[in-house]
Task: inverse folding
């Protein structure tokens, strides 16, 4: 009986901006480098033949690949085993194999080994060879090291190009007989699966090729979830707020919303608060072995299994890796008990489930059918949900608001709809405006809420909004909703995007009385918490235009830390040894792996939603490590704290975040810690997990405390974290 492999997991990919150039002598790539403290970006050059290029010497680029999902994928033993089994089953004789998106070359090496490709056959003719296509130059350089370590450098022909740039007769001697590839994201199509397969079938593969994977099928399920509702429904949630700010006034409720797309999330982390309203249903099927269509649509009738309100469609996919249908890999949530989801308990971050928000929600009764229209393009899958016999949205909106939408991330929607957060901001701004006559207020970040709040609370104030990320979108938004908030259209001035920094000429020689922010910078949602110290940097640059008694809000930031048990996250980033028989130890330093790295190669701090990191456990109370005094110009600072463990367990690292103190009296504090699910925390994983206990009950060999020290470099925005256990 053939072995059946049944697997399940989850994914996130870090987007990167690159531009490639080539010449006869070398290959180079331009990597976009962002300065988190200024928002400035520049292109840096990575040369193929220069291992010590600028990109690798610069501290910002030191962990160029550490923030990607490569390490997590290579630690996914279910994924690796499934591909290895399918490749060995599919490739049984010498042939020409094309690996698109080769990464470290793992699938290429599997293919070469499967057909017993030796040095005498590899590259010499098209009967037994592997062509590995990888467009990202830093990964190409890493792949060469892996192939050399495994003595397969001559077995595999590496092409540093996009697959749609490959030409038969130039880059590869003939069309390939077999395609192996893993160019999938959590949604399945987001990494360009369809156009890649189309070009490969048109230009690079023989007719009726063998492929691994063989097929992918997407599935969905209707769910009710208050948390998911808060992530996209601002109009209904802010209606409960006690303040008079209306970011989405009545009649203008589509003016702010999330982008109509699927969002990758670990749905298992919220399984206890999700109510399932339907059975799972099949949506689309994509065959790798034939040319896919660019567009497809399907109409599904989905029957309710319970009464409730549909807030979202949760979706996932299942890979069939072999033609016979015996080897599978699934990203389904754990609540699915299908035979193909055995082993779904292992947490991985590189593939997650996806969530499609249903605008406004829709009521469903048990036994009632709703109509789900699903469509796919080259790169995405979309949904539209209607009750049987219902019409499309025919509401009338003011000011042609349908022609304008300010799209914000789901977490930002939830924050703006949170009553406690809004009341805290209201109190802080009201206190700041006391005894201020005709104040000039500068909103330094992208906070539309603060700009409206100041203008509404102080009719005599002049508000200048920088909106460094929102820019013209922020200005257009304010013009639409200002009347509904009792603010004149000229009450808030949005700075000209062409001007670098504010000068006294911009303020008619009047100095700034209030310099405020949340802080929030649009587009920086996936960054580390302390990269919002851009607010402190900009306050320092504008020091000359601040009045002597200028009020800075937030007044300071406090770096907080908590010891955590994070076994799933740590295991997903642990050092690699052999992966399905191939030595990958040479990638550990570059990919920022945990364990086995020699000083000075420290594991990097990476941003995560702690609550989505699989199995988690608090091992200590929360401690303050150091403070960032925003009332003064930015400066180098450091601090340390001794953390006492309150729970026994295994410590895998520390969660770090910033609590923003809005006033000098320390009376209003807004936390971005793990208990707040709308902010990412920084995670510093240990090189090796440490057994810990409490002072009252400590076993031999357990540590009961740790000293955490941190230093902040204002020139680079780097935060260095150290720790000593005792």
Result:
């Amino acid at each position: 009986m053939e072995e059946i492999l049944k697997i399940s997991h989850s994914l996130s990919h870090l987007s990167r901006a690159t531009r490639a150039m080539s010449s006869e002598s070398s290959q180079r790539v331009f990597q976009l480098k962002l300065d988190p403290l200024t928002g400035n970006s520049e292109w840096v050059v990575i040369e193929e033949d220069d291992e010590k290029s600028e990109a690798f010497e610069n501290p910002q680029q030191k962990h160029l690949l550490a923030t990607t999902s490569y390490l997590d994928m290579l630690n996914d033993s279910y994924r690796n085993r499934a591909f290895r089994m399918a490749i060995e089953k599919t490739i049984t004789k010498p042939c020409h194999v094309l690996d698109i998106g080769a990464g470290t070359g793992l699938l290429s090496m599997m293919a070469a080994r499967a057909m017993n490709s030796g040095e005498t056959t590899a590259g010499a003719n098209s009967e037994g060879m592997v062509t590995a296509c990888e467009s990202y130059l830093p990964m190409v350089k890493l792949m060469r090291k892996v192939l050399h370590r495994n003595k397969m450098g001559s077995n595999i022909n590496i092409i540093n190009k996009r697959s749609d740039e490959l030409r038969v007769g130039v880059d590869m001697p003939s069309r390939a007989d077999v395609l192996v590839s893993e160019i999938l994201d959590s949604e399945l199509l987001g990494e360009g699966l369809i156009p890649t397969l189309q070009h490969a079938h048109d230009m690079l593969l023989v007719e009726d090729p063998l492929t691994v994977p063989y097929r992918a099928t997407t599935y969905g399920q209707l769910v009710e979830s208050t948390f998911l509702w808060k992530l996209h429904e601002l109009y209904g949630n802010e209606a409960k707020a006690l303040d008079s700010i209306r970011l989405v006034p009545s009649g203008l409720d589509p003016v702010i919303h999330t982008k109509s797309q699927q969002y990758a999330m670990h749905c298992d982390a919220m399984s206890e608060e999700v109510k399932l309203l339907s059975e799972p249903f099949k949506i689309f099927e994509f065959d790798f072995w034939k040319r896919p269509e660019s567009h497809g649509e399907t109409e599904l009738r989905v029957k309710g299994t319970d009464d409730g309100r549909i807030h979202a469609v949760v979706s996932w996919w299942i890979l069939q890796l072999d033609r016979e249908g015996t080897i599978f890999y699934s990203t389904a949530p754990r609540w699915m008990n299908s035979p193909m989801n055995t082993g779904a308990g292992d947490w991985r971050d590189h593939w997650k489930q996806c969530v499609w928000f249903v605008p406004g929600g829709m009521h469903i009764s048990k036994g009632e059918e709703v109509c789900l229209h699903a469509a796919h393009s080259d790169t995405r899958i979309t949904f539209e949900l209607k009750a049987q016999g219902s019409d499309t949205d025919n509401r009338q909106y003011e000011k042609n608001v349908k022609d304008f939408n300010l799209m914000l991330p789901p977490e930002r929607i939830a924050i703006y709809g949170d009553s406690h957060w809004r009341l805290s901001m209201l109190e802080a701004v009201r206190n700041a405006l006391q005894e201020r006559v005709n104040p000039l207020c500068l909103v330094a970040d992208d906070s539309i809420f603060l700009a409206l709040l100041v203008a509404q609370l102080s009719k005599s104030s002049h508000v200048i909004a920088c909106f460094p990320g929102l820019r013209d979108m922020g200005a257009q938004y304010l013009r639409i909703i200002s009347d509904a908030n009792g603010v004149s259209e000229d009450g808030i001035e949005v700075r000209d995007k062409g001007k670098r920094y504010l000068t006294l000429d911009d303020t008619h020689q009047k100095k700034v009385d209030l310099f405020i922010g949340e802080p929030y910078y649009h587009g920086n949602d996936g960054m580390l918490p302390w990269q919002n110290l851009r607010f402190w940097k900009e306050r320092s640059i504008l020091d000359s235009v601040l009045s002597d008694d200028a009020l800075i809000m937030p007044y300071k930031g406090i770096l907080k830390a908590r010891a955590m048990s994070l076994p799933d996250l740590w295991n997903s980033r642990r050092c690699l040894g052999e992966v399905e028989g191939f030595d990958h130890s040479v990638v550990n330093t570059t990919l920022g792996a945990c364990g086995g790295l020699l000083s000075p190669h420290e594991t990097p701090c990476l941003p995560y939603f702690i609550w989505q990191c699989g199995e988690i456990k608090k091992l200590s109370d929360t401690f303050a490590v150091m403070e960032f005094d925003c009332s003064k110009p930015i400066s180098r600072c450091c601090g340390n704290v001794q953390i006492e463990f309150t729970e026994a367990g295994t410590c895998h690292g520390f969660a770090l975040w910033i609590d923003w103190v809005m006033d000098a009296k320390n009376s209003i504090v807004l936390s971005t810690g793990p208990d707040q699910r709308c902010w990412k925390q920084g995670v510093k994983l240990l090189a090796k997990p440490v057994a810990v206990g409490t002072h009252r009950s400590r076993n031999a060999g357990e540590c009961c405390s740790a000293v955490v020290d941190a230093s902040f470099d204002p020139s680079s925005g780097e935060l260095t974290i150290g720790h000593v256990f005792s």
About this structure: The mean pLDDT is 89. Residues 9 and 331 are 4 Å apart (CA to CA). The chain has four domains: 53-117+126-182, 216-232+249-394, 418-553, 557-725.
